[in-house]
Design a protein that fits this description.
The complex is a heterodimer of chains A (299) and B (365). Chain A is mainly α and 299 residues long. Chain A has 11 helices and 4 strands. Chain A has a domain at 13-219. In chain A, 71% of the residues lie in helices and 4% in strands. Chain A has a two-stranded antiparallel sheet with strand order 1-4. The two termini of chain B are 20 Å apart. The chains are: A mainly alpha (299), B mainly alpha (365).
Chain lengths: 299, 365
């Protein structure tokens, strides 16, 4: 029983992390159709700024968390301003390739300016402890991950439903031209979407740092690939789809971890992706995605 | 030329071409392909006759990249869907011939426990290559069935998933693929002349596909899916077709790489190769085969220059430090700048032979 509960918590915590990152991707995609491959490098910027701050002597975990989230949001907005604005009205493939290019540049800049090797960051290690509830031992990090992700998603939903800017963002995902006709500045909507997406990535970065205790240039890349897959199973551009897809991915991974014998553990990623591709055979538009006729924006 | 694929497809479908007309078109596109391949041929022959061994080795690597980029163009250029998984097929081709054609004495050292009797199998290089390509074709057909059904973005992500699946199998099925270690002892049977022949063949094949009825229809459906569907174009079938052809060309590049290098390892066929070849295709222009060729030539030379700086040069007697990551930054910057300022790449929308004939027509006027 203990084991089953532990694995359930594992799955929920992994799933929560994937959901956070996938939501960040979906927010941006739903508005401007940008497949943001550089999302992982936003996580990277966030983690490296914690590393640099720690190197300069700022070792308070509280400051580190604020810094991680703030820098991630800032990085996302800067990426948009510098790289994605010129291709805003270009076809999806152009945006995707631009983002891929940004991701390569930033990853290699970490390598060039800091080091190709992983660097240790111990500021946030305090978040990762064992808590004992009677007979159960749980990782504090996983519990926090679950609670914080839940609260973040709740805050996002409230923002999107209750504020004018949130309403504008939701409307922009349906018909951007009309939103602009209503006198809302396109740049503001898009910058806000990027800031939200960055902040979500920053929260994920905090958990990654607390778990790994180190930074490396490809820190966020692998995670974002998984988040993309989560978006695809959920239905690309759908926010609930991203959250559900992330959770599903967490459960598939932990399920395989439990089910696979030790000597096949290396095949976990391959099998996870294979299962998801198989799912797509039956639902090419994703679980919560709708079949959109191209050229017909209103769903 | 711009935006005219659809109307061309309409014309072609409305008036079924007579035998002579389609024969002419075939001839023109064949000649076009050969013209496009001409610079490659010239460079290849120059290197073959005059260059020192080190440059021959570099040129062989560049030719492998050329074939990969041409293969990538077949899918990306015609369907306008980004493919980020093509190096999986390069890897499959390379490992296919490595497993099939490595001499038994070498296999005893490297993969003594290979399943299915592969440890005691040694084929001649040609049949090994054919079987490897068959395997690539089958994998491409199965993955293509999924990818051709998806919309653009989802297809790209699934192509990435394919890359990760294949890479993870290479790494973890150690009995067959030797895992993270280098697979050595593959017979080195391919030199520059063969490489040149296959590079030209790949370029011509890509051009023939692009100009064929299927290529034209696929480009039309990439431009306007609904209009193409209304004309009765089966975009899924065409995407599958170009995906498989693209994979076979990439697989061929892998086979050739294994046969010239003699040693391969999984990391060669992972993201680094994707970055390099994608940047080459984008820089050259993915709409045309000429673009693929141009991008490879320009970026191969550029990258070699950057790599020499990266490993630390001495300028005026001062030793510069190693700058790891510089070539990566350059590749990424090339992609970002190209996308922002010239999304159609250096060569734009015209093939080399079309440019030449345009030039002559202008002079004649």
């Amino acid at each position: 029983m203990d084991y089953a509960l532990q694995q359930l918590l594992n799955a929920l915590a992994f799933g929560a992390e994937y959901s956070l990152v996938a939501l960040g991707l979906a927010v941006v995609f739903s508005i401007m159709g940008l497949v943001n491959f550089a999302h992982g490098e936003i996580i990277g910027v966030s983690a490296y700024s914690v590393f640099l701050a720690a190197a300069l002597g700022l070792t308070s975990p509280f400051v580190a968390v604020l810094l991680a989230v703030g820098m991630a949001a800032l990085a996302a907005v800067v990426f948009e301003r510098v790289a994605f604005r010129p291709v805003r009205y270009a076809p999806t493939t152009t945006g995707l390739l631009t983002a891929f290019g940004v991701s390569i540049v930033v990853q290699n800049l970490f390598m060039l300016l800091i080091s190709p090797k992983p660097q240790s960051v111990s500021v946030l290690n305090g978040l990762n402890q064992m808590w004992f509830f009677g007979p159960f031992a749980v990782s504090s990090l996983q519990v926090m991950e679950l609670i914080v992700s839940g609260l973040t998603i709740l805050a996002l939903v409230l923002f999107l439903n209750r504020s004018t800017l949130g309403l504008a963002i939701r409307a922009a995902s349906r018909d951007f031209a009309t939103v602009r006709l209503m006198g809302i500045k396109a740049n503001r909507v898009i910058a806000t979407a990027f800031a939200i997406s960055g902040a979500l990535a920053g929260i994920a970065a905090v958990f990654i740092l607390a778990r790994r205790g180190s930074v490396s240039p490809d820190l966020g890349f692998g995670l974002v690939l998984k988040a993309f897959v989560a978006c695809v199973i959920g239905g690309f551009g759908s926010l609930p789809g991203a959250a559900v897809g992330g959770m599903l991915l967490g459960f598939i991974e932990v399920g395989l971890l439990v089910a696979l014998p030790q000597e096949y553990a290396g095949f976990r990623d391959a099998l996870t992706y294979a299962i998801i591709v198989a799912l797509l055979v039956y639902r090419p538009e994703g679980l919560l995605g709708q079949r959109v006729e191209l050229g017909d924006k209103e769903i | 030329m711009a935006g005219s694929e659809l109307s061309q497809a309409v014309e072609q479908m409305a008036a079924p071409a007579g035998a002579t007309q389609s024969g002419n078109a075939l001839l023109r596109s064949l000649i076009g392909g050969l013209v496009t391949a001409l610079p490659v041929l010239v460079i290849g022959l120059l290197v073959l006759n005059f260059a020192p061994t080190y440059y021959t080795f570099l040129a062989l690597g560049a030719f492998v990249n050329l074939i990969v980029v041409v293969g990538l163009q077949v899918f990306m250029g015609n369907s306008n869907i980004a493919n980020l998984g093509h190096s999986a097929f390069v890897g499959l081709g390379a490992y296919g011939v490595a497993i099939l054609s490595t001499p038994l004495a070498m296999k005893k050292l490297s993969i003594p426990n290979a399943p299915f009797g592969f440890a005691t199998l040694e084929l001649d290089p040609v049949s090994a290559a054919l079987i490897a390509l068959l395997v690539v074709g089958i994998v491409a057909l199965v993955s293509g069935k999924v990818i051709s059904r998806l919309s653009g973005v989802a297809a790209t992500i699934v192509s990435l998933a394919l890359l990760i699946i294949v890479h993870s199998v290479f790494l973890n099925w150690t009995d067959l693929f030797k895992g993270n270690q280098a697979f050595f002892g593959i017979p080195k049977v391919v030199g520059l002349p063969w490489m040149l022949v296959f590079a030209v063949l790949a370029i011509v094949a890509a051009r023939l596909f692009k100009d064929s009825r299927w290529g034209l229809q696929l480009r039309a459906s990439a431009q306007s899916p609904q209009a193409a569907a209304a004309l009765g174009i089966d975009a899924k079938k065409l995407r599958l077709m170009s995906w498989v052809l693209s994979a076979l060309i990439c697989g061929l590049a892998g086979v050739l790489y294994a046969y010239f290098a003699g040693t391969i390892s999984p990391k060669l066929f992972y993201f680094q190769m994707i970055f390099n070849t994608l940047a080459m295709l984008i820089l050259g222009g993915m709409a045309t085969v000429t673009g693929a060729v141009t991008g490879v030539i320009v970026l191969s030379i550029g990258l070699e220059f950057i790599r020499s700086i990266e490993s630390g040069v001495s300028v005026a007697g001062i030793q510069m430090p190693q700058l790891l990551g510089l070539s990566g930054v350059a590749l990424g910057v090339v992609i970002v700048l190209c996308m922002a300022f010239r999304p159609s790449g250096i060569s734009g929308r015209h093939e080399l032979d079309e440019l030449v004939s345009l030039l002559f027509r202008r002079n004649a006027r």
